[in-house]
What we know:
Chain A is mostly helical. Chain A has helices at 2-33, 41-51, 61-95, 108-122, 131-149, 157-182, 185-196, 204-223, 225-229, 235-240, 245-267, 273-285, 289-313, 322-340. By secondary structure, chain B is an alpha/beta fold.
Amino acid sequence: MTTAETERGTFGLALLLTFGLVALAFAIAVATAIGDYSIGLGTVFLAVTNGLGLTGAEISPIEQSVVWNLRLSRALVAALAGAGLSICGAILQALLRNALAEPFVLGVSAGASTGAVSVIVLGVGAGGLSLSLGAFAGAFSAFALVALLSNGATSGPNHTILAGVAASQLFNALTSYIVTTSGNAQQARDVMFWLLGSFGGVRWPDFQLLLVVVVVSLAICIWMARALDAFTFGDEDAAALGIPVARIRLVMFAVTAVLTATIVSMVGAIGFVGLVVPHAARYVIGPLHLRLLPACAVVGAVFMVSADIASRVIVAQQTVPIGVVTALVGVPFFAIILYRARPQP
Amino acid sequence: MIVVAENLFWGVKRKTIVSDVSLSVARGETLGLIGPNGSGKSSLLRLLAGLRRPDSGRVAIHGQDIAQISRRALSQQIAFVQQNAATDTNVSVLDVVRLGRTPHRSALSGWSPEDQTAVALALERVDMSDRLAQAWQTLSGGERQRVHIARALAQSPKIMFLDEPTNHLDIHHQIEILRLVRDLDLTSVVALHDLNLAAMFCDRIVVLDEGRVFASGTPEDVLTEPLLREVFRVEAGVSSSPYHNRPHIHFMAG
């Protein structure tokens, strides 16, 4: 009986991962082929194998460069960002025991925007400090504030969520203050565009950094997956099951903070992915984290690459901010969660 | 003695909640903790289970100070059942009972035959073997409590602590749960509100009042009219039940 149950779950995960990875490869291929300058899938394939040094096929250097240097790195970063945000969402939903938790609940995106605005508008660092570094520093300041307000995240889920709300409000206020008092119209537009998220500027070094961060984070989280399951009935129950609650909490919050801050500093605060994907994955694969986390990574990656494709084709000759696309899909889903979670009469 | 507590003190800020409590529990015994609201039953139970650290004093299990034992090693010997632990996650009965194996499994270890046996036995013990796939949210209060006890049993503990496990249950389910606990082949310490049920199902009773042990002993020794008046502030007559020979308390409407 129970062994059969386990096997079915594992089989389900294998099926989802296989299907997901095929879908991901397809989505990345499409994302690489389409754009203002459309390139055939055959050429895309050759350009990729050329780039990897496997072949030396004769294709135009422009096509080679567009595929390899611009679109492929962009698609891969999108995939990693989607995976990372989804993992963070799943972990925070488990630790905070709140279905509406998402990666930005600890104030990370608000902090990142303050950091970014300080660089764009105030010129903090005088050009020596990149936008990404500013955003990362801001994100971490916000997280530090939340950790401080919630006594190192030991005060229980609701306390931590309230600390996150306070930090978000503070940093959003700082951002607005800076933009309204110091910014000009163009800067305000830049800031807004950055906040809504864009994969426009990413290149290979971004991919390499993000790959390391996502892989390490996922490994740590999978290592702690059983501990996350033990939080099903709350902190005290987890402790009674032998989980060192305070340590797991702090490590997991720190991992999600690093992961979210890295992603936000690279591509902006892309909302809803981290909320929606864990719920969808849980619906398909069940609540156990050893299966849920890999499922979230793959589903999140496919979702984000697809959203990036959509953001480039919805309006001709123009890229819609990625956050707008994810929210357009995310909000209806959010509504469904709210509807299903309503108190039963 | 399998559990020995010596001079436990615990408090929040300046308020002392558990004050100089010493007690011991014998192997296989069912010990009842009773006392009015706020007398420190729940807090004492958590100190005994190692979920809270006493401000002073110590708790030993099998003669070993629990402050020296890792959380995980402790959970291989001790199980704790909260009152009404709830979740919004969509878990099945089997998922919940399997959680009980957490202290016995390392991070990535597979599901072993021992895990399998422990879970199957635990489910059988609470008579939920045929409800494995049922969703947690669809269970009644009594069924949830039984699943929690099954999860605790799956931990293969030597000692089980239960914090008012019969709260919010109807009388049939209260008796069912307590009979189950009494008949378990292990040592259990259970905080209870209902004095007659405590008299029926506990081998020994510890009465707490304002964080102190007011009395301890067999139900016959402890549940006396003067004690009920002093600790619980009720007028009552106590007689030996003609049905089960345990003390039975008749409360006076006044």
